[in-house]
Amino acid sequence: MNLLSVGASYRTAGVGTLEQLAIAESAIPAVLQRLVAQPYIGEAVVLSTCNRVEVYAAVTGFHGGLGDVCNVVAEQSGVAAGDLAGHLYVHYDEAAVQHLFRVSSGLDSMVVGESQILGQLRDAYHAATEADTAGRLLHELMQQALRVGKRAHAETGIDRAGQSVVTAALDLAADHFPDGVAGRTALIVGAGAMGALSLATLTRAGVGPLRITNRSAARADRLAEAYGATGVPYAELDAALADVDIVVTATAAPDPVLTRERLAAVLERRTGSQPLVVLDLAVPRDVAPDAAELTGVVVIDIDGLASSRRTPPAAAETAAVEQIVAAEVEHFLGWLRGADIAPTVAALRTRADEVVAAELGKLTSRRPEFTAEQRADVSRTLHRVVQQLLHSPTVRVRQLAAEPGGDQYAALLRELFDLDVPLATQADAVPEIGGTRA
Questions:
Q1: Going from the N-terminus, what domains does the chain have, and what CATH number goes with each?
Q2: pLDDT above 70: residue 430
Q3: Is 308 part of any known ligand binding site?
Q4: Residue 312 — pLDDT band, cuts 50, 70, 90?
Q5: Is 270 annotated as a binding residue?
Q6: Burial (Cβ within 10 Å: 0-12, 13-18, ≥19) of residue 225
Q7: Which residues contact 211 (CB under 8 A, 6 or more apart)?
Q8: Is 1 labeled as ligand-binding?
Q9: Residue 386 neighbours by CB under 8 Å, 6+ apart
Q10: What angle do CA 208, 211, 215 make, to 5 degrees?
Q11: Percent of the chain whose predicted confidence (pLDDT) is above 70
Q12: How far apart are CA 181 and CA 176, in angstroms?
């Protein structure tokens, strides 16, 4: 099996495309099953966040695996595969490992260094585990990616400022208030992970009083109690919108929650000249695109954040994380090369056992006078000799296989001993390890 990563993010697609590609949490198990049902895909993990949608897969061939992933993504999103091509990035083997480790450490995030991606990646891995679509390769890859992300945050200052998508959006919102956002009233719509992060971030920024609403009142009330906010019944959303300065929307609704008509009606109930600033952190968007045209409403969404990133971490901090990622990629590739030679070593030992068994059979037929005890002694002696002869070479070949170019040692063993070891990568022509397709 080889590793393949196919995705789109804020770097390659606008929010309109991302919301077409976005996969609802409830739909991910079915998408995972469709992926592993494809002929070239053996394992799969799907990561879908507000600014990226990615598939990580263990495949038996590059071209076949890429075609399978693209077909499933196109079917799920309703976007033709040809139309997706300009928005997708593709990483293979070493490049796929490097990309995932950069994602987990926050280097590829819209807000560099944000740590929320670790929770999102953990959820994606958990969903694949529950759906039984992560096998040995992706289990190891995902566990290592989570460890790399934790290490990057623990050993460097890349997240020292506590930056996140919410802090970045709030930073843009501050431009629309003469005295900043402190003391401004705010409403959070949605009580999921992003809603909780929004409450925590706004609290730290001194925004308040804070209110929160959600279709499930119980979840909103729990968050409100935890952060000293006020829970608002969802039926009273319009009244709450008319009475705040800032709105953060972070729901999982498939259609806009704040339509042009709804916001127009809200504006008629507001007093004063201060615009209503809406931070739309949902994908698909919670605010209808045409609502941003209303006078008196300022909408800051993922597209706005992508084009207005302001406070990147210091170069020394990102360089330190890059060094961690590079070292961890090489460590993982060493494990992968060692794992790749295991079937060859197993085949060699099986061949040795077969030879011993055949010779013991011949000996038994030639020397029928041997007792069972004598035959057992001969058998143990032969097995010990073979195991001693094989021990040093197999240990050494495992060590050599973990080094760059180590795959040639497995090939040499197969050639020398004429071993028949099925190779998954023979199913398709593939680029060199580390190759990237875009």
A1: 2-155 (3.30.460.30), 165-306 (3.40.50.720), 321-421 (no CATH)
A2: no
A3: no
A4: low
A5: no
A6: exposed
A7: 185, 186, 187, 188, 224, 229, 230, 231, 232, 240, 244
A8: no
A9: 352, 353, 355, 356
A10: 160
A11: 92
A12: 9
Mean of pLDDT over the chain: 87
Q: How far apart are CA 66 and CA 415, in angstroms?
A: 31
Bridge partners (DSSP) listed for residue 305: none
φ/ψ of residue 6, rounded to 5: -130, 130
**Which residues have a catalytic role annotated?**
50
Count of Cβ atoms closer than 10 Å to residue 55 Cβ:
25
Instruction: Give the strand pairing for 2-9 and 89-92.
Output: antiparallel
- Average pLDDT (201-223) is 93
User: Which residues lie below 8 Å from residue 203, measured CB to CB, with a gap of 6+?
Assistant: 210, 227, 228
Distances (CA, A) of 38 to 2, 15, 31, 73, 373: 15, 29, 11, 12, 54
What string of DSSP letters covers 377-416? HHHHHHHHHHHHHHHHHHHHHHHHHTSTTTHHHHHHHHHH
Helix (H, G, I), strand (E, B) or coil at 64: helix
16 in a known ligand binding site? no
- Tell me how far apart the alpha carbons of residues 429 and 60 are, in angstroms, rounded to a whole number: 10
What crossing angle do the helices spanning 193-204 and 165-173 adopt, rounded to 10°? 50
Q: Identify which has the larger pLDDT, 308 or 92.
A: 92
Residue 193 assigned ligand-binding role: yes
H-run or E-run covering 230: strand 230-232
Structure tokens at 40: 């070239």
- Is 2 marked as binding a ligand? no
Band of the pLDDT at 429, cuts 50, 70, 90?
very low
Between 393 and 301, residue with greater pLDDT: 301
195 carries a ligand binding annotation: yes
pLDDT above 50: residue 433: no
pLDDT at 410: 74
Q: What is the pLDDT of residue 405?
A: 66
Token readout for 429 is 């022509």
Is residue 224 helix, strand or coil? helix
Cβ count within 10 A of residue 299: 24
Greater model confidence, 160 or 99? 99
Would you say 192 is a known binding-site residue? yes
Q: Residue 241's pLDDT is what?
A: 95
Half-sphere exposure of 165 (CA within 13 A, CB side): 31
Q: What is the mean pLDDT of residues 56-66?
A: 95
